[in-house]
Automatic annotation (TrEMBL):
This is Uncharacterized protein. GO terms for cellular component: post-mRNA release spliceosomal complex; precatalytic spliceosome; Prp19 complex; U2-type catalytic step 2 spliceosome. Residues 317-476 form the Pre-mRNA-splicing factor Syf1-like N-terminal HAT-repeats domain. Residues 1-18 have a biased composition (Basic and acidic residues). Keywords: mRNA processing, mRNA splicing, Nucleus, Repeat, Spliceosome. GO terms for biological process: spliceosomal complex assembly. Involved in pre-mRNA splicing and cell cycle progression. Required for the spliceosome assembly and initiation of the DNA replication. Belongs to the crooked-neck family. Residues 82-302 form the Pre-mRNA-splicing factor Syf1/CRNKL1-like C-terminal HAT-repeats domain. It is found in: Nucleus. Pfam families: HAT_Syf1_CNRKL1_C, HAT_Syf1_CNRKL1_N. The keyword Phosphoprotein does not apply. Residues 1-23 are annotated as: Disordered.
Length: 478
């Protein structure tokens, strides 16, 4: 409506507003191409087969193919795959000289390309051009002496045509470059195929001068000598290996290999000495397999006492590992000391174990942490009295035990009683009474009074009993 009240009509184009919201189904370029491909009605026929009937047509066909190859090469000279395809095509039509020329042109572009050299030499080998192939391999190994494929193919070709001295000469040239272990093993296997034991032995010795840092190469050499019946040489190789590595570089694998060799020769005592030498010179954490092998050895060939000794050593190692992880695991110390006592070990070793055990004093001044620890002292004292039959040492143990207990925080009445009973067994009545008197003074417990009174009653010391009862009643009445 305008100011005069008339309605204004909009043009028809203005009445139609274009919907600019995105369509529910989106069309992609990929979809358009797919539909166009599916609706393609005309198919491109394959090129017609060409039937060549005379030499002129054949020459024309060859000219066209060569032009195609040359054009491809001209576009990208560095694409050596085009050179190889070109050379192979020339080979397929019997033009070996042209094929050689193409390979040479390719090598002028990149003379360090391994694939071109391989294809070139293999082309000559396929066509039985041995001298040409030999020259190519010789050039290849001179330019790229670290390319293992060249040497392997070269030696394979010489051996294939029966030129064993030539193959050996190629191997010798290769070894001058001190290649990796695979190359040396290939040379050794080559000599073994022709039963050249002495030559193979010489190669092994040169091999170890280059790659002697790996003990497995020494073991491989020793097994070579063993397979060929040279037992003394094999043993000498093992001994040289141990001398070469020394104690610092020695490991359990080389000793296990040496010991297994002696076992195969029925030299059981030698094997046992090797195992023991390893256990004496290699840390325990690095000699697990060595110990297992020794156990198996003793079970197979050892006597009963030796087997028990090995099992004992194995259990010792297990206990030591557990103690190293947690020295306050007192149950392990109990098992360890019981093992040593039951197996009749030397007194010094048992006492050393006890001393190490009691040195691990609980870090907390609470009685519950001390209960298992105190029993280590009791077990120690009983061992000194009954097994070692040393009363003086036993008395020292009991005294040290009482000294280490923090009596102001807590005490253990049974320790005082067991110490007093020990003195009674030694007929030291005065000492027993002194111990019990000190105990009552430091910890006047009912159990101590009752046991003390029981002892005096058995001795018919009624006056002492009366005094103890009086003291007992005074304490109980507080």
């Amino acid at each position: 409506m305008n100011e005069h009240g008339k309605q204004i009509r909009l043009p028809k184009k203005a009445e139609k507003v274009k919907n600019k919201t995105p369509a529910p189904v989106q069309i992609t370029a990929e979809q358009l191409l797919r539909e166009a491909k599916e609706r393609e009605l005309e198919t491109v026929p394959p090129p017609p087969k060409v039937r060549i009937t005379d030499p002129e047509e054949l020459a024309e066909y060859h000219r066209k193919k060569r032009k195609e190859f040359e054009d491809n090469i001209r576009k990208n000279k560095m694409q050596l795959a085009n050179w190889i395809k070109y050379a192979k095509w020339e080979e397929s039509v019997g033009e070996l000289q042209r094929s050689r020329s193409i390979f040479e042109r390719g090598l002028d572009i990149d003379h360090r390309n391994i694939t071109v050299w391989l294809q070139y030499a293999e082309m000559e080998m396929r066509n039985k051009q041995i001298n040409h192939a030999r020259n190519i391999w010789d050039r290849a190994v001179s330019i790229l002496p670290r390319a293992t494929q060249f040497w392997l193919k070269f030696t394979y070709m010489e051996e294939l045509v029966g030129n064993v001295p030539g193959a050996r000469q190629v191997f010798e040239r290769w070894m001058e470059w001190e290649p990796d272990e695979q190359a040396w093993n290939t040379f050794i296997n080559f000599e073994m195929r022709y039963k050249e034991i002495d030559r193979a032995r010489n190669i092994y010795q040169r091999f170890l001068h280059v790659h002697g840092h790996d003990f497995r190469n020494w073991v491989r050499y020793a097994r070579f000598e063993e397979r060929n019946g040279s037992i003394d040489n094999a043993r000498a190789v093992f001994e040289q290996m141990l001398e070469f590595f020394g104690e610092d570089g020695m490991n359990e694998q080389m000793l296990v290999a040496f010991a297994h060799f002696e076992e195969r020769q029925k030299e059981f005592e030698r094997a046992r000495i090797i195992y023991q030498y390893g256990l004496d010179h290699i840390p325990k954490e690095k000699s697990v397999e060595l110990f297992k092998s020794l156990t198996v050895h003793e079970k197979k060939f050892g006597e009963r006492l030796r087997i028990e000794s090995v099992i004992l050593s194995k259990r010792k190692v297990q206990y030591e590992e557990q103690i190293k992880e947690n020295p306050f695991h007192y149950d392990v110390w109990f098992d360890y000391t019981r093992l040593l006592i039951s197996e009749g070990q030397e007194r010094a070793e048992v006492e050393d174990c006890f001393e190490r055990a009691i040195a691990n004093v609980p870090p907390y001044m609470e009685k519950r942490y001390w209960r298992r620890y105190i029993w280590l002292w009791v077990y120690y004292a009983i061992y000194e009295e009954l097994d070692a039959n040393d009363p003086e040492r036993c008395r020292e143990v009991w005294t040290a035990c009482l000294d280490i207990i923090p009596h102001r925080q807590f005490t253990f009445a049974f320790i005082w009683l067991m110490f007093a009973q020990f003195e009674l067994r030694q007929l030291n009545l005065t000492g027993a009474r002194k111990i019990l008197g000190v105990a009552i003074g430091k910890c006047p417990k009912k159990k101590l009074f009752r046991e003390y009174i029981e002892i005096e009653l058995k001795l018919r010391e009624f006056d002492r009993c009366r005094k103890l009862y009086e003291q007992f009643l005074k304490i109980c009445s507080r």
